[in-house]
Here is the input.
Amino acid sequence: MAISQLFNVANLFVLPFWALMILLPNWKVTRQIMSSYLPFVLLAGAYLYLFINSITPENAQALSNPQLADIARFFTDETAAATGWIHFLVMDLFVGRWIYWEGQKTGIWTIHSLALCLFAGPMGLLSHILTYWISKALFPKFQQNEAVTVGEKAESSSGT
Here is the structure.
């Protein structure tokens, strides 16, 4: 598979997971799918393939003692850029999944944080942390009650 094809496939691969977390967060199927590590294994496999193919002795030396100019030169290579991009896809989805599960556990609203995380991972993470702090400060009893309710719903839907 060509690098550009792998890049395009990886970009499309993550979208259903984001759509489920953002649009259907309380659906049983969403919970089942997001409990799996398989998407991360597949994306990490693509990352590993690209990483191995992007490392040359010169790149390895430059990355062993990173300087901004060396990193910029490294990412001018198409394979290295695709490797970096898939790194973002894996990590942003992983953080998004964590935000999703925190929302399921605590009852805190996560749609805005997940949407931000999809496009700019660290901003989504910051948004979730701030939302958590604000919710905890303004509605401490709601968060506690909602966490029990979400837990009870999950328990009753699993049949235990």
Remarks:
- The radius of gyration is 19 Å.
- The longest helix spans residues 78-106.
- Confidence is low (pLDDT under 50) at residues 156-160.
